[in-house]
Amino acid sequence: MIKSNHPSNSLSNLTDLMQGVFANDSLNDLLCLCEKHLHRPCMVIDTGFRVIDMSPAVSMSAAQTPSSTVNYLGNVRGIPYLGEAYVEKLRSHYIFSRLYERKYICRSVDMDSVPAFLAASIQVQTSEVYLFLVFSETGAFSADDMRLVKQICQILSVPLRLNNPYSTFPVIGPNYLLIDLLDGNFIEKDRLNDRLSHLDWIADPPYSLLIIRSRGTEPSVRHFEPVISVLKQWIPLSACVLYQNSLIVFLSESIYQLLAIEQSAAFTDFLNSYSLYAAIGPSYQNLFDTQHNYELTQTVFLAGIHYHQTLTLFSDMCDNLMAYLLEMHFGVRECLHPAIRKILEYDDINHMDLFDTLEIYLHYRDEIDQAAKILHMQRSTLFYRIKKIKELTGLKLDKLDEIIQLHFSIHLVRLYGREFF
Known about the structure:
Blueprint: H1 15-22, H2 27-38, E1 42-45, E2 51-54, H3 56-63, E3 73-76, E4 79-82, H4 84-91, H5 93-102, E5 116-124, E6 127-136, H6 143-163, H7 176-183, H8 189-194, E7 207-214, H9 224-231, E8 240-243, E9 246-252, H10 253-262, H11 264-273, E10 276-280, H12 290-306, E11 311-313, H13 318-329, H14 338-350, H15 354-363, H16 368-375, H17 379-393, H18 400-416
Parallel strand pairs: 10-11
Antiparallel strand pairs: 1-2, 1-6, 3-4, 5-6, 7-9, 7-10, 8-9
Helix pairs in contact: 1-2, 1-6, 2-6, 12-13, 15-16, 15-17
């Protein structure tokens, strides 16, 4: 561990850091200089507590497990995170209330099992986008340390402003509340209520989630700037957050009606123009159910991509979701109703269209004249074909459960094509 010395506390002593900024050095290079001035390990994390970059002392000791510095880091699916003990301390109401009120924290955090550390927010335009953390194994920080950390954050804000996806739309982030809700982290109700005041959409339940993502295999944040430019005509940007390479929008009921119903055609055209996929999940009343709703919306999103649907609504996707889940876990061919299989085989051999006849008949059982009109045949011809279907398959077509099974199998055929079966 690097020994703690009395740090310099003037911007004039940070000229090498400023020169590195103007030379467009990498964040890692800049953190090397920060470590030199602070004589302590440091890192930058985002609003979800994911590590953006770290100084050499952190990365070196993370590679060498015996060092205690590895306690600073967690790991989720290969992604480095701030260690859980530090996260819990940063989540404390006192720390976060200070952060929201003053836009930065410069305070020593003392825990029996956790070394002291400073946490300072790096401002990008008007929003807090990243946190700068400095760790110490030797004890609390001095006032000079705090001043120096604050000065360093002012310098680091310059390159982060240039390379930050939030910079064009600073009101989007960061949003610790929305990240916590999506991650499914425990939030006390009192703390949740305290943190809702800045969300102007929160008083209009029920809510739905909208996921927007690039069609490319490697989603790019650059897609979201033009997306947000258009979306802000319809939704408050305080209801948006960038999460796992997606733009997540919390939709109130009124916005859902506007975006999904009234503007659906224009919105679909817009998504197509930017090569984006989108899905809108089911409604829910309680924000604490956000993670569950996100997982459902994610399934709808994947099903929409699977069936090449630009905009997918949970409310319209019941059959598609069932088919998608069947295909992912069991296979679709085995789920086709035996009667539908017989009809398809009969049509192929005899060059008939009994399948089409049955589909229209089931849709218009109470409007036989309309069914005959759509099929371009007389009522008597329609009844003759239905009688043929019953004789061929043994169907009765008078029970709801049988009709539901047939309807789902017909949907599978339409979804995958006759040749699939």
